[in-house]
Amino acid sequence: MKTFKELREQTQNEASYVANDMEIVRSILNKIENDFSKLSLKKQFERGFPKLQVLAKMAGYGVTKNKQATNRTFRYDLKK
């Protein structure tokens, strides 16, 4: 059974949001950053790594963890 606080947070998260275009972009990026931070704190960053690869590809980069030290990621430019 959910507590009142959990229900209130759920309704706030599902609310629509109207703002400037760049504010929408900023809010989306903040949410993504928060999700990755939570995974990193739980030591489960590998669960979010496929999302990171997709985001990097959208930005024109590639990322890999091959031959890198623990908690390190290598970013490179994609060839066009």
Structure description:
It is flat, with a radius of gyration of 17 Å. Helices cover 51% and strands 10% of the residues. It has one domain (4-77). The protein is mostly helical and 80 residues long. The mean pLDDT is 86.
Topology:
Blueprint: H1 4-13, H2 21-41, H3 49-58, E1 61-64, E2 74-77
List keywords for this structure.
80 residues, two-stranded antiparallel sheet, 3 helices, 2 strands
Helix content: 40-55%
H-E order: HHHEE
| C-alpha geometry | flat
Trace the largest sheet across and list its strands: 1-2
Label the structural class: mainly alpha
Radius of gyration: 17 Å
Major sheet, described briefly?
2 strands, antiparallel
Mean pLDDT over the full residue set: 86
Number of domains: 1
Number of helices: 3
Strand fraction band?
5-15%
Poorly predicted parts: none
N→C terminal distance: 52 Å
Count of individual beta strands: 2
Question: In a nutshell, what does this entry contain?
Answer:
By secondary structure, the protein is mostly helical. The chain is 51% helix and 10% strand. It has helices spanning 4-13, 21-41, 49-58; strands spanning 61-64, 74-77.
